[in-house]
Amino acid sequence: MEKLERSLFRLEQGFELQFRLGPTLQGKEVQVYTNYPAKDHKFDRLKFHSLDWVYPNGQEDDCDKYCRLDLIVAGSYQYYFSCGDKEKVSGGYIVVDPVLRVGANNDILPLDCISSQTYLAKCLGPLDKWLDRVRVAKETGYNMIHFTPLQKLGVSSCYSLADQLELNPNFSLEGKHYTWRDVGNLVETVRKDWNMLCITDVVYNQTAADSEWIDLHPECGYNLVNSPYLKPAWLLDRALWHLSCEVADGKYAEQGLPALIQHEQHLNALQGILWQQVFSKLSLWEFLQVSVDEAVEQFRQLLQAGSLGVTSRSSTDCRQQLKMVQDPQHRRFGNTVDMESALDTFAPHSRSPSDIQECCNCFRRRLEELNLELYKEMNCHAEQATNCIVGNVVYERLAEQGPKLGPVTRKYPLCPRYFTFPFEEMTFEEEMHLMEQKDKACHFLAHDGSVTGNNPLRNLTESGSEVYLRRELVCESDTIKLRYGERPEDCPYLWAHMNKYTEITAKLFCGVRLVNCHSTPVHVAEAMLAAARAIRPDLYVIADLCTGSQLTDNVFVNRLGITSLVRDARSATGSQEEGGWLSWFGKEPVGAFFQPSLRPLIPAVTHTMFMDGTLNDHSPIQRSVYDFLPSSALVSMACCATGSTRGYDELLPNQISLVKEDHLYSCWNPEVQKCDQVNLKTGIMAGKMALNKLHQELAAEGFTQVYVEQLDEDVVTVTRHCPSSHQSVLAVLRRAVKNPEGHHHKDNVPPLFIPGQIEEVVLEARTIVRDINSDRRSDININSLPEYTAEIQEHIQLKDSKVVKKAAMVSKHSGVGQEILFKKFKPGCIIIFRVTLESRSREQLGALRRHLIQFSPQYQTGSLAEHSTPAVLTKPLMTIMSRLTLADMNMLLYRCDAEEREDGGGCYDIPSWLSLHYGGLQGLMSVLAEIRPKNELGHSLCDNLRGGDWMMDFISNRLLAKGGAVGEVGHWFQAMFSYLKHMPRYLVPCYFDAIIQGAYTTALEAVFKQMSSFIQNGSSLVKQLALGSVQMYGVGHCLMLPTISPHLKDVPHCLSEITCQDNQCCVSLAAGLPHFCVGVFRSWGRDTFIALRGLMLLTGRHLEARNIILAFAGTLRYGLIPNLLGPDSYLRYNCRDAVWWWMQCIQEFCTLVPDGVSILKCPVSRMFPTNVSDPQPAGAWDQPLYDVIQEVMQRHMQGIHFRENNAGPQLDHNMTDEGFNVEAGVDQSTGFVYGGSRFNCGTWMDKMGESERAHNKGIPATPRDGSAVELVGLCKSTVRWLVKLHNIGHFPHAAVTIRRGGQTYSVSYVEWDHKIQENFEKNFYISHDPHDPEEKHPQLVHKRGIYKDSFGASSPWCDYQLRPNFPIAMVVAPELFTVEKAWESLDVAERKLLGPLGMKTLDPDDMVYCGVYDNNLDNDKFNQAKGFNYHQGPEWLWPMGYFLRAKLYFAKKMGKETYDKTVNLVKNILSHHAVHLERSPWKGLPGLTNENGQHCPFSCKSQASSLAAILEVLYDI
Q: Which of 865, 861, 859 is nearest to 844 (CA)?
């Protein structure tokens, strides 16, 4: 359950957002809530409503259900979800970008098109001249004007507002008073006539110190009445002021501290005086301490009163903590002690005066210790304050970079004042008296400020912060910190005042910049912006955040709905850092993958406004005047909003002072430049106009991909690329960090290879010196550097360039392009090329995009018709795919390396990385699905694609070699890849992915069309599991089943690659990948039929299922089917359970398949008509399947005893000689099928010991001889079914006949069925009654209320082991179980055996339990060495399916409430399988895991039985 408050999810309007359940929430009652406004409702950030669940396939499936939001309203919205009884489990935010509109037609201005210019409002002069001055922005290509606050200002900074509601009176003329309405008219004129938007600053955290309204409402600031915890800091502040005055008056000169502080001795003297004259006299520690005498006396009186009685506890332990009670008025010695804690800590032994006195003495000592600790705490604050005061003096008066204020005076005191003092000068003693007078103390207001490195989410002025006391604040002494409280009721006037301020701003401007955003209480800004959006829903919000942490930035962005964060390019340390920023701001890299329309929402980076200069630049010409132009070009190439400050383009030599500037901006004059006017010849304005125009064009035309490269120390290239047209615009910049007029720069610039064909030089520019009178200066206007200007050329051909020496077409491995040699490309120069693909590449790419349209309409743009289309591409791929069988799909999509090698090939190997898991498309898709969302173009797979055509040739050649329908798909790939081979190599990965993804998706669609309605209409999990059917069943020259009867119709045939003859080619099952998929270890009888119902019958592959059933029927011998299927000599009949799984599958076939009972009459070609006969050819000995079934039942009832053919180490080098003797039969008294011995293991738990060192070689770890519970269940299921079949005339046999003692006996199936039913629970259920007469070995019972794993084992204790096998019997023969007993036993299994993915194969309480399987480990541990514990704890997945199915079956019997809870449990468990399937590169489920779901490296990565069993659970639901 993720907590996403610090993750940013940004979306544009028009997107549909879906909320889907994660794995931990599936199967639980989850509800999603959001404050996004419901339809026809207004936004209320405090009002949440629930979202309805959508079920896309019409079924209540937790895998696919979702809630949706159609995002059409801009802003920041919160969501959270509840789970069961937990009201709020987790949540996060969604930020929806605004849509900005300009012009009379309300044309959309995309956010990435924004080019903003900032204006210091006070430099605009009277309002009637504004249009003349801001016209500069229009004429230089900007489309947004950003004004600093337009309100009435305080005495200093342009951000210090005296009245938030009043327009600055300086904008009015004598006799002409302008109002906000006039400002609004100007803003609207600019929007409609100039196609420009206007935004302005809002300041919420402070007001000017000379604001008149704060005098009337001092509760709006932090003062000594509403914030009495500031008293010590205020006293220190006043003491420092008086000390400063005395230093200014020379009082301490004789003590080594003159007014003019010049060296370290003066600083040392200052430190001494601070301690002696300030801190020691203030005794600030008294504000923290307790009055000891008063507290002891109060304590004494309580003891004497005896109201709490006398205790015998160890009450004189003075080391215990007392609870201190803070004095709400924060007076000296005002703190007290919680007397209840005192009485609990210090209690007398008796009420005698001596004991009470002793107790009081202990109490006093503890209080004195506490006071000493508090004294030391205050001293620590004093030490820090001293350091900060001295540090501030060093900066302001001694540091080279500081303001060097000179002597200490009253105007420039020793340190800044932290509080206002609106009274006449008086002595310090008089001031101390004012502190306790509320009508006076309420006017001592704290100034605003900041602390370097402070947590921006922490309010520096609230209680608990000591920055004012420790003098850590960088104080703004012209402002007052505003105190809002937590809600409007805490300070009604301030909230109402600022709300009105916000509404005025929102009515006039399309956006705001949050000044001091990180210093503004988040909940305040949240409320104000909500009020603004109520007026202007598409409010554009920008902010500077200096948190230093992207996650912390995200908190502000999320809660406030900030659209763009301001980033200053000039705060970067060099081109490389700026280039890194540029890539970060870009939406995606060049050559990025094409993303699907429905995709996971991943955390985003905040949209950026990238500035080449801001008002806070301390020195605009800090590098070189020649660096302005390339720096602007670098910023303009960013794929985000960009901005600048008025004056940057004009090359102002000095920073415009936010406090002292009294000059005005120059007006625009396009004709003649006077000293008080500007035009395109001024500074770099011509270059900036071209750059702004280009920036806007690139964003509007979809150049969303960015690539930045550092060619040389000062040469940077920036590429903007359009992913649909594949045009590029490439800027080459040569920075001039150091002035080239005084610094030597090398003449040569490295040559540049540009893939493609250069269409034109969009812009070529450099800064030059012109011959002009630079002494002309305006006394009214802000002056620039008139001698510098930008020389530009736009839209020229390469031959006309002044900086390109040579441009030659060259062919490199990366493609055809032009190599550029530069001349006179000096620092300060820029050149920008427009590049297209060369003609052949353009044609090939356009044709390829046309063929890709069948997969997604996003390829429509840029597509081209071609003159001659390959025939295979003239029809949709789905038409070709529809000709493929599911066996063909196995070849197309899957086949692991072992399968490929058996056919003479292998999976594709990526040098320096790994081999793909599959030879088919899934091998590629597993890798591409990982790297596509992250655009991981540096991945080795992408390197391989860019390096050559090997991978493409591998894919097409592999399929072409197969011929037929598969070969036609190979021809399709070959034709599609032919286009790729003529493209620039940087585009190959993304288009290769588009081809593979399109083909893969089409193949899956074709696969599902051939499957059952259960799969077609199923959830995504159902479909993923069903693909296991394609993954595991295949055909190859080494993978064929035994030949089935030639008299059978509809058997597939194919031409043998070895004999060139027409042979049967029925699919066979790979038990697991990659270990059990080739040779004799591919087809296991047991695994084949455990998996057949799920992977064949439920998926609708009925004909292939029939063929598999009949093929194995033909191999019947001794009444068993083989454990391993291979050539005749490799057939091993050493498992007792495979034949019963085979019988169960025949039953399922008859039940699930239309007219399924017809299979019973199908001819079976017997390979071994008798136990001793030689193998017979197909068709030589045919008999109907029902007779083969009867033979199985007959032989088991008669008894099976034989020795394996070819017995000995050549057959199994681990087994002892006795282990080759196979025995099976039916207990005549119980009807239970039984078999095996302590020398072999004939069920699925078939691990044979291998370690000579541990002495377990040849010893079965789990023999499970006797009657294994699941085999009894499978036998019962078969007998019951045969009774039913016989009764309805589909099975001719009513009984089995046996010979015993020379006589023949007949046992009817009805009798057999009844006998198993009668004896099952008697012999398998372990009751709670310790005296149960049916229990033969009560001393072996260690768990009750469960079913035994076996009955009659040679080692009786094995019968009593808790294992996950009894649920199998519950599923196939539920009639054997009493509902209540079954439910209880399943509950025990759930508590003891249930793992995340599988079931523990042994009770963890068992002495031989070991949950970690390591087949390589050979040690002295008998129960562990060489994987002896294979089935003694590790968690197998296929039993999980039967456990869950049993739970569902019996839960339904327990009633609706129980059933509903069980369904939710099952969904929650299956969510883990869904996650594993999604994340597994094999797209499968493992055979087993180690304990608690840990990965087991020895397991198959994808196991047929695991996939089938889980699919069956979903079918049952």
A: 865
